[in-house]
Amino acid sequence: MTIYDIILTGDFMEVIINSLDHQGRGIGRINNKVIFIPNTIPGEKVEVKIIKEKKKYMEGIVTKYLEKDKDRIENLCQYYPKCGGCQLLHIPYQQQLLYKEDKVKNIFKRYNLENVKINSIIGSPSKYHYRNKVTFHVSNQHLGYYQENSNKFIKIDSCLLLCENINKNFKNILPNNGKLIIRSNNHEITYEQNKKIMHTIVDYKFLVSIDSFYQINDYITPLLYNKVKEYLNPTKQDTVLDLYCGTGTIGIFISKEVNNVIGIEINEQAIEDAKENAKLNNIKNITLICGDAGLEAKKLKIKPTSIIVDPPRAGLNKEAIETIIKFNPNKIIYVSCDPMTLVRDLNILKKYYNIIEVTPFDMFPNTYHVECVCLLSLR
Ligand SMILES: C[S@@+](CC[C@H](N)C(=O)[O-])C[C@H]1O[C@@H](n2cnc3c(N)ncnc32)[C@H](O)[C@@H]1O
């Protein structure tokens, strides 16, 4: 029987899971062809139904667990894995951390950065209820998520990733159809354009508008920012460029220990928040500029001694990389939420910079995402 007969007849196959791919799906083999199966753990034996067949790989779903991992976590969430928000909820947290650390190591190895030191991953102090922001879809006045890669609406009554304050209060909101973004701290929530939420990171306060970027996990953000500061090793002689500065958080966090900071951010609302945050924290040595990171940095008349970059998943664009290299700073601290674009950019920067080390952070427990902070030093 060929693989095509199996699909046509809807037959089920037995598969042993060998490892996890970068999206947290189990990898197995049928007749030597790779199959990706969500909601599985390496070592498990499952019965699968093939739902997609491509030339080089297949995708399947579990129809029965024949041999389960003894530590598998079950029945925590009625929406998992349908809603697509989590991919690793079934995996014990220590195993999730090892998976993410290995993932970073594998990506660095695969893309010619095998000699870079990757530190142990820093886990999140809270593995559930860590998200301070959510984007809900609205259908007939109900809030919910769309199933992964589809527009099938799943009504949600509470979510294991959302902070308790959002879970407690979101059902009182009567939304219009479309999307609804909710932000929260410990005691208030907002979904309105003109109301900002106050967050605290160590001794600093940050007001954040609904459409501005703010780190999603309040529990791990101070650890991540402290790592940035440790890598920066700031001195009073430093001029630091904070590219992709959002609401000014990192720049303000390090400002007292350096001569001055220049923050650049494309989102107008976020840069307005950043200016307000500088005032709120009584920080006078920070200049905040709205515009594209690379283009605005190019216009600067002063030369930074260090550059911090924290771009979106797409990583650094051409102008940003060119401008950074031209500035020739002593240090670059690269905060990345996608190790694939991180290694792409590091492979350009490594001609000019030694990649000293990388520390992964679990900003997004129970999902396949991983954040990294990387230190580069001028050759
Ligand atoms: C991952 S966030 C980092 C924000 C900030 N460093 C923090 O820790 O909160 C990336 C930020 O880059 C901004 N951004 C995206 N593209 C940009 C560009 N081309 N130039 C400048 N900023 C950009 C986004 O609006 C977002 O605020």
Describe this structure in words.
It contains nine helices and 21 strands. The protein starts with a helix and ends with a strand. The chain folds into three domains: 3-67, OB fold (Dihydrolipoamide Acetyltransferase, E2P); 93-126 and 217-378, Rossmann fold, CATH 3.40.50.150; 133-208, no CATH class. It is of the alpha/beta class. A hairpin with a 2-residue loop joins strand 8 and strand 9 (142-146). It has helices at 3-9, 93-110, 164-169, 221-232, 249-254, 268-280, 293-298, 318-327, 339-349, and strands at 12-16, 19-20, 26-30, 33-37, 45-53, 57-67, 117-118, 133-139, 142-146, 153-155, 178-184, 189-190, 197-201, 204-208, 239-243, 260-265, 286-290, 306-309, 331-336, 353-361, 371-378. The site of S-adenosylmethionine has 19 residues, from helix 5 and strand 16. S-adenosylmethionine binds at residues 213-215, 244-246, 249-250, 264-267, 270, 292-293, 310-312, 337.
